[in-house]
Specification:
mainly alpha, 5 helices, rod-shaped
Length: 129
């Protein structure tokens, strides 16, 4: 079975440019396999490779930056999920139930806030309320 790619034209062009840049950085000469692969890619997608040559002066290796960004973002996601799980556990422990509709609902959250004793007590009134 063939899996369809879901990249936009711009993403595909960026991917080709990054691969071309990587192949050129790995090649040691014109007869090298990396150089031959880069030449074949430049022949297959000349626009991306031309753009890659002009964009190479801007920053570092694009493909390597994107490749290292994935694990960094995955670590960040796992850390945030762990924090959310801890917060849900703390909230459930306090009696909130986790989804806000647990025992007491909104009144359950009111009970968690300590209140000072009343200073004055209203016994009645004389005027119109």
């Amino acid at each position: 079975t063939k899996v369809a790619m879901v990249l936009t034209d711009r993403q595909r062009s960026d991917l080709h440019a990054g691969i071309h840049e990587y192949l050129l950085s790995r090649s040691s000469g014109s007869d090298d396999a990396f150089a031959q692969a880069a030449a074949a890619l430049a022949e297959a997608d000349p626009k991306a490779c031309e753009r890659n040559a002009s964009a190479a002066s801007k920053g570092g290796p694009v493909l390597e930056k994107k490749w290292t960004a994935v694990p960094r973002l995955q670590r960040k996601i796992m850390e945030m999920e762990r924090t959310a799980a801890q917060n849900a556990k703390i909230y459930a422990h306090r009696g909130g139930g986790g989804d806000g509709a647990g025992k007491g609902g909104a009144s359950g959250s009111r009970r968690m806030i300590p209140r000072p004793p009343a200073v004055h007590t209203l016994k009645g009134h004389m005027g119109v309320v």
